[in-house]
From TrEMBL:
Protein species of origin: Knufia fluminis
Record-linked InterPro entries: Cyt_P450 (IPR001128), Cyt_P450_CS (IPR017972), Cyt_P450_E_grp-I (IPR002401), Cyt_P450_sf (IPR036396), Cytochrome_P450_monoxygenase (IPR050121)
CDD domains: CYP58-like (cd11062)
Family from the record: Belongs to the cytochrome P450 family.
Cofactor(s) the record lists: heme
Name used for this protein in its record: Cytochrome P450
Highest taxon listed in the record's lineage: Eukaryota
Molecular function via GO: heme binding; iron ion binding; monooxygenase activity; oxidoreductase activity, acting on paired donors, with incorporation or reduction of molecular oxygen
Amino acid sequence: MALVSLLLIEQILLLAGLLIVVKYLYRVTLDPLARFPGPKLAALTSLYAMSYDLSGHDPLVKHLKTLHDKYGPIVRVRSNELHIFDWKAYYTVFKQGSDFDRLTEFYNSPQFDGSFLNIPNARVAKPHRDLFVQAFSKAAINNLEPLIHEKQVIFLAKLNEAATKDRSVGLDLAFNCLTGETVIHYCYQMSLGLLDEPNFRPRLVVDIHGFAPFVAFFWYFPVIGGMLNNLIFSLPDGIIDKFFPAAMSIKAVEDQCASLINSLSKAPPDSEEVQSSIFRQALNPNKEKGQYVALQKELTADAILMLLAGTDTTAHALTFGVWAMIKQPRMWTKLREEISTVLNDTQTLSSLKSLETLPYLRAVVKESLRVSLGTSARLARVVPSAGVTLCGRRIPANTHISFSHYVYNYDPSIFEDPHTFNPDRWLGPDVATLDSHMISFSRGSRSCIGVNLAYAELYTTFAHLVRRFDLVNDGTTDEDMDWIDTFVPSFKGRLRVKLLAVE
């Protein structure tokens, strides 16, 4: 009997092994994607991409340009994923009303479940997304200037205190505190106290940064990741806090957002509390005009999205830009000279309107956005049922195609010497061409709705930081400022500086 059982197990294992071999042979021979070039291991298994993205070193996106140079504009980077580097193809996929849905497994964060980010189809997402578009319009952000200045005053005062005490500052975390506090106050009329914490190290910011290296795991193991997320968040708060501090920080924000939405939903529609909120339209949709009627769960997910999306990306652009200028101090000097034309002293704040007239400041902002990418991940889309022809090649329905900001924003045919931080490129005659090819906020119907807020914060922060302080590197290395791909770039170390207040 034992012998029969052993033989049965052996046969099952043999069959399983045979099926695996057949599957792999199919992927490199009969699979419709087998005719697309790329590393053979990538065609067989996700281990090729995982070996980069889960290594903690250079992510796959940093190797894509080399692959495209070798294999052409379409490269098979996973068994069912083609990465594409072609501008015409990019604008075909990322256009208004695009039929290319987002890949569900990639946009699978449980914390955003119900938000417009996680809706795969752009047309389906649009009514939900449109509830917030007006709140982030250029006019709305211009009216936000007093709040931006209020946060700047606190931020600059803390930097001045650090300068007075000759204290080192982790400026990358400080930028996260500034941008996070600004967006949370605008969106919800409340404070998380991010700018109140000693030395810019609030728990929320530190914990989220600590969790960043695990993000890529959820891309490759979405089912396991979802199960782990559900398990962790079902535990008692004390256990979550002790063993999963990042999860506890996120849960605390979730609870605050849910409480806020609940409070707003009970307030009179014409109350100042509701009318000053970005949720004013979402809470009072015009059903006769067909406006989207959002559930409380959806609005809570939207609230979390606004906080996280509005914090890291802008802070990263500031960090990339400042680090580049620390290494090239002539840029800092040149920028200060220009800013001094609208800021005669170090105690006043300039209007956004005045700052936007400064060409070199604009160039620094643009270059910082270009090199910081906005999103570093391979943004995945699904080919619609009719299939598509891109780069002269027919791609079958349901194929996953991806596009990386890193490849496009560092395209040497558009941005000469792309790995050099060079604001002067934005002062030349071809600036319109550069603008049309800089995709840090993405393009089309799924582009970032927070673009105007990001620009306002970048102009204001760069201007007043440069006008008031000189920065001295406090041991930061290029290795510290190298990054891994966690949907947004995550630095391997901290931007440590000491500040010298200027007269």
